[in-house]
Model the fold of this input.
Amino acid sequence: MELHLLSYSQGPAVPLLDRTIGEQLEHVARRWPDGLAVVSRHQSKRLTWSQLLDAADRLAHGLAKLGVEPQDRVGVWAMNCWEWLAVHMACARAGAILVNINPSSRAHELTYILNRSRMKMLFLRERDEKTDYAGLLAEVRGGGTFALQHAVCFGTAAWDGLLAETPRASSAPIALDDPTNIQYTSGTTGSPKGVLLTHRNIMENGYLIARVLRYTEQDRICLAVPFAHCFGNVIGTMAAVASGCGLILPNAVFDPKAVLAAVEAERATAIYGVPTMFIAELRHPEFKKFDLGSLRTGVMAGAPCPVEVMKQVASDMHCREMVIAYGLTETAPVLTMSEVDDDMEHRVSTVGQAMPCTELKVVDVETRQTVERGVQGEICARGYMLMQGYDGEPEATARVIDSDGWFRTADLGVMREDGYLNITGRAKDMIIRGGENIYPREIEEFLYTHPQIAEVQVTGLPNERYGESVLAWIRLKPGETATAEGIRQFCDGEIAKFKIPESIRFVESFPTTLSGKIQKFRMREIEIAEQGLEEVARRGTA
Ligand code: AMP
Done:
């Protein structure tokens, strides 16, 4: 009788770090006090590990003096900068919960997060090229009442005052299972949810990532991904704190040339990015001018990774140990990765296999039974890395974590015979544009506030540069007229730019099933044919 393996696997049980983020930071700062913790190129600022610990403890003391207590929420709203990292570490040392806010967020989104997170304090950049953060905050605060008591802009006297405190971490005990971070994601349904992550979740995830990538204090990660997302603040920051390797911030916003220049100037050994970023770097007209010979490894993640792009990164960027990571904010994030010494085929055309201390299974979407290897199903995960839950939303949490502790990713995948995973689709209605997740329902709900719109359906289209782009089909109220440009103007300043539909079609009706359910896949097919996107739609991914 032939024995069929089921799509279940478990990474090796290895000893974990067993330290809170604050303890680990202190450990690294004592071991390599003069080692580089971060260099922010656009700010011409460098901090060693001992300087980072010192800044974190001054800020922690300042937070305490302002009345921020352990488990209070503290937000950060800025593009990548050294201050972001300092506040992250300060929250960890103070036992406060860091709330990441996407720098692309606009009035409508900021209002939601201030309300839902009940944050007591917010750190922000006053303004940058793209955003007047302080102005937006003032506008939002003027329109409502929030728990927010203090807002401090980086670089102001108030900020300098906090940094001038005597260094003092919290004396209150901080447990591994205390929440330390809230990151907003929309989960599988409409409105964004706060993913409540503990020290154990993100510190151990960072530790295991560092272990797989064989980071030492000699390594330097070129970090083009935002701190506001788990790719930056866990795969980046937590892996660095776990290993003592340095973080290189090439610029505030993503700029392919700044990334290439940063790798060369700082002799980066690792490079991170979503597929769109690597595509932009590889295609940059000056790509060949930069010496990228210091690179050894790197991580591509966050969206389906094109096999061809992975191959080019491995060869043209000298990342011979390049790997793909797969996971979600809710799973700290990384669930699977390849080993750096796996052969090329495994590293470029799969997302790897279960990380240490991680259980994975692939189940039939209908029956919930584990399928045989080689058969597509929904990927589920269990282990130390699983979020504590969606902040204040026990029902939403129960919908994604079953009574046996299995988390439903709503991603479709195939576990190969050898245990390596391919991501084959999504059971959730989500668009990933250039690594940014977009929930159609959120945009639909916002567009329903437009006075002329009767019905709207949003979905994703294949896109050469961003992987996917946003498509909206709109039925106007009788007798109304509108233009695509007018609709986009309506969104401007209210929702993040990346969510504003690139393609808008005004229609009289939508493709539906016999039972009247709207078929978004048909909308997509029609647009692909109309816009001639068949070739882009066929690209192979891991
Ligand atoms: P986030 O919570 O923002 O980290 O987004 C998680 C989602 O990104 C997953 O549920 C996947 O749909 C997608 N994703 C992350 N990594 C990969 C990958 N390597 N390949 C394909 N999709 C990915």
Summary: The mean pLDDT is 95. The chain has two domains: 20-415, 431-538. The two ends are 32 Å apart (CA to CA). The longest helix spans residues 49-65.
